[in-house]
Amino acid sequence: FDMTFFRPPDPSLHHLLRVGKLTLTFLSIIMAIVSVLIIHLSRTISREYARLLYTVIIFTAFFDMYSQIIFDSQYIMPYLCVYRDNPLFNIPLNPAWGFIVWVTMFALNAPIYAACFIHRHQVIVSPESSLKLNLYAHVAALSIITTPSLTYGYAYYV
Length: 158
Hints:
Transmembrane segments: 20-40, 52-76, 96-114, 135-157
Keywords: Membrane, Transmembrane, Transmembrane helix
Number of domains: 1
Helix content: 55-70%
Strand content: under 5%
Low-confidence stretches: none
Distance between the termini: 18 Å
Shape: flat
Protein name: G protein-coupled receptor
């Protein structure tokens, strides 16, 4: 693959995009903190559901920070996320493995949302219903969802 066919981006535009990405990442972190505070101050949310919501918010904020600050993939190239642009924390990371981690982190949102759904579903189901799940059924359902989520990144890249 030869990069000589691509015109390099204008440095001022590249700097503007970089500042915009970092600003949006910072705002995302602030919104995550505000969301955690709102959940913490709410008296109508159960403790278990609040922990699940904390997990969603913190994991999503961590994914955003990884995407923009550590991995910093180049989205404007013909091959999505194969090139690293100019990461703020330049950890020696192979772009292929960075991409695998990125897709895996994105896929791991599914089990978190599934846990929230199962919890809310079990709250409204009557105790004598056949749809009421025990703890082992919760763990089994989440394990079934989590296992493929851990392999998506590698399978997608290969």
